């Protein structure tokens, strides 16, 4: 029997706990792989009662999860207790939220779990408590870096075979200009190319790279980053043999007839890449972290505080995230 997938509980005031309970309820109909939640069993029990769900919750180790999963939701108890208050953020939740991510990663490195699906966190609530990472993506890279290495994590949003990656991730727009370099673009393309081959079994991934400015700079009249940074990076990549097109005007690159030519489109900043994926199917998008030695996926939505505790949040993106993590961890890396 394969080891379970880990699910980190995410922000307790958000919809993460609702969705974990909802998908567990649907485990048979949806043929879900075995998973265990890293979190607070009492909180999940209280949320289940609030939602009127009749299900059992059992404290477990990851190793016991497969035998428990049929009859009870397996929860690895992290020892932090938080009050069930849907929609109301509390700084007291931060240790639970952060520990759930950290201990899930530890369990994967220990061979007890095979991959991680993260429920959404409320970033601002964690920053107030000293969490020093912009999001999961960067925190996971730090947790996975061993022996002083630094890893470049890649955030890829996917809706079926439509994939988009921002080269710069969680930063103010004005910081993007000083962060973009040919080396960063080259590193992103190399990692995306390699991970599409090894994790997605695409033999020769086709990659498109967008510009930064309107109309990809319109020959330098609307910005020079395409000429000074992006085109030289692509030239170096072509010399190395990578099939990359660009710089493509970002407004048309995501039109379906162009996007479908590529296994991934690499864009220059967060919203350039994420808006198209969330716009074509918010309910089905999945966030996948590349560039790490572990598999991590997540639904594409956030904590949706106003829906927490109502039972109205859609589980579809979470189900997709679980399915992709399951698929990515079925076979050994090639
Ligand atoms: N993976 C993550 O941890 C992650 C991802 C995105 C956003 N966030 C965080 O979530 C918080 C809130 O962000 P936001 O308001 O921009 O985005 P959001 O995704 O929480 O909400 C955007 C809109 O979509 C709705 N929505 C979200 N998920 C839904 C679902 N499953 N079913 C039905 N409707 C749903 C919400 O009600 C809201 O109208 C922020 O702190 C942000 O950083 C976390
Ligand atoms: N940028 C992501 C999004 O908007 O969907 C989200 O903030 C999640 O980021 P992390 O996976 O790094 O937490």
Report on the structure:
Pfam families: PdxA. Catalyzes the NAD(P)-dependent oxidation of 4-(phosphooxy)-L-threonine (HTP) into 2-amino-3-oxo-4-(phosphooxy)butyric acid which spontaneously decarboxylates to form 3-amino-2-oxopropyl phosphate (AHAP). Substrate binds at residues 136-137, 278, 287, 296. Belongs to the PdxA family. This protein is α/β, with parallel strands linked by helices and 334 residues long. Helix content is 38%, strand content 16%. The chain folds into two domains: 1-151 and 292-334, Isopropylmalate Dehydrogenase; 154-282, Isopropylmalate Dehydrogenase (3-Layer(aba) Sandwich). The chain has a twelve-stranded mixed beta sheet, sandwiched between helices. Helix 1 links the parallel strand 1 (5-8) and strand 2 (35-39). The radius of gyration is 20 Å and the shape is elongated. The mean pLDDT is 96. The site of 4-hydroxy-L-threonine-5-monophosphate has 7 residues, from helix 6.
Figure out the total of helices. 13
What count of structural domains? 2
Characterize the largest beta sheet: strand count, sense, and whether it forms a barrel. 12 strands, mixed
Mind telling me the CATH class of the largest domain? Alpha Beta
- CATH superfamily label of the largest domain: Isopropylmalate Dehydrogenase
Class derived from helix and strand content: alpha/beta
Could you tell me which ligands this complex binds, including any ions or cofactors? nicotinamide-adenine-dinucleotide, 4-hydroxy-L-threonine-5-monophosphate
The SSE order reads EHEHEHEHEHHEEHHEHEHHEHEEH
First CA to last CA: what distance? 21 Å
Low-pLDDT stretches = none
